[in-house]
Each structure stands twice: as structure tokens, then as C-alpha cells.
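Sequence, please.
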């Protein structure tokens, strides 16, 4: 009983954020600690971009991040595409569904926003994560000169009536 009492189950809240709030985790997880100002994406300034964070409800620390940008998929472009980019969860919080909840929020926002697809360039190590979230690989693996092997992946949104 004592052991159960001393266990704490962390709670996380997903909320929209300003782009600047995502930069520290982009730096730490995705850019090897590069200065946050160097972790800005060109797409961040696009009208309609959405920035989401997962926050530890107890400490208000940002533990997960993702961005959505209204950018057509280059290999098969349609106007109603969203690019998912900069998906990252802090090391200590991985495996607790933080990433899945961020993607689910992206899917909800993409659907209500009238978009047709969400696409991303998935790091090879993250492919199984995106598959678990319902994404499907598109085309062959390719090498990103800075960030290693990647595969394009697509999630088809279900239109609402
Ligand atoms: C990829 C990442 C975002 C996943 O976040 P997470 O919060 O740990 O993932 P979740 O806990 O929501 O996992 C959801 C499901 O995916 C699976 N999964 C997550 N990462 C996985 C991995 N690397 N390999 C295999 N399966 C994985 C989980 O086991 C879980 O499966 P389940 O439904 O069977 O339980 C996180 O590991 C991360 O930040 N990695 C480093 C940065 C990175 O690679 N980002 C992606 C850039 S494209």
C-alpha cells in the first residue's frame, strides 16, 4: 500500500503555444543543443502554422513538442496538406504516450481545419512510432545530409460531414 501511495502518475496537458516555446526542446532533442535561435524552421512564420506543446501538469514544464505547417507534400502536392515537423519528447517522458497524444491533437486540428492529409519526413528510428499513430510510408528511404536516414510518411484525414 505504501509503495502505491508513493507512486505518482504524471499527467500531461496538450496546449497550443508560441513558436518560441518550442525552441529549447527542438534544440535539446533534435539539434544536438544548437542555440535555440538556430532551431527556427522557415515554415514557423507561415500563416496558419500551429505549435503544440505537452506540458507536465504539475510543473508546467514543456516535455513534448510538435509543429504543423500548411505546406503541400512535394512528391504529390495538394493544397490541403499539413506538414508535421519538429516532433520531440523529452528523454525521461518517452514511452508514456506523450508523442501519441501530440499526434492525435494534430489529427483533430487537421480534421477540423478541413485539411486532407498530414505528412512528415520521419527519422528512420521514429518510423514505428508514426506507424503506430496511423501514418503510412510513401516512397523509398532517403538520406538527409544533416539528420540521417528518413522516410516520407502520410496520414489521411477523414473528412467530417
Ligand atoms: C519518436 C518520439 C517522438 C515518440 O514519442 P513517445 O512519447 O516516446 O511515444 P509514445 O509513448 O506516444 O508511443 C506511441 C507508440 O509508439 C511506440 N514507439 C514510440 N517510439 C518508438 C520507437 N522509437 N520504436 C518503436 N516503437 C516506438 C510506443 O511503444 C507506443 O506503442 P504502443 O501503442 O504499442 O504502446 C520520441 O521517442 C522522441 O522524441 N524521439 C527523439 C526525436 C525524434 O526522433 N523525433 C521524430 C523526428 S521525425
Amino acid at each position: 500500500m505504501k509503495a502505491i501511495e508513493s507512486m505518482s502518475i504524471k499527467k500531461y496537458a496538450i496546449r497550443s503555444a508560441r513558436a518560441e516555446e518550442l525552441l529549447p526542446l527542438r534544440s535539446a532533442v533534435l539539434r544536438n543543443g544548437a542555440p535555440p535561435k538556430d532551431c527556427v524552421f522557415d515554415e514557423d512564420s507561415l500563416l496558419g502554422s500551429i505549435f503544440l506543446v505537452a506540458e507536465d501538469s504539475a510543473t508546467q514544464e514543456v516535455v513534448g513538442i510538435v509543429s504543423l505547417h500548411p505546406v503541400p507534400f512535394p512528391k504529390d502536392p495538394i493544397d490541403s496538406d499539413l506538414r508535421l515537423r519538429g516532433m520531440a519528447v523529452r528523454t525521461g517522458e518517452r514511452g508514456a504516450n506523450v508523442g501519441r497524444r501530440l499526434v492525435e491533437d494534430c489529427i483533430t486540428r487537421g480534421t477540423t481545419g478541413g485539411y486532407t492529409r498530414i505528412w512528415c519526413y520521419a527519422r528512420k528510428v521514429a518510423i514505428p512510432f508514426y506507424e503506430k499513430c496511423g501514418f503510412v510510408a510513401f516512397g523509398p528511404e532517403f538520406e538527409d545530409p544533416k539528420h540521417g536516414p528518413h522516410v516520407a510518411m502520410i496520414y489521411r484525414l477523414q473528412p467530417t460531414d
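The mean pLDDT is 94.
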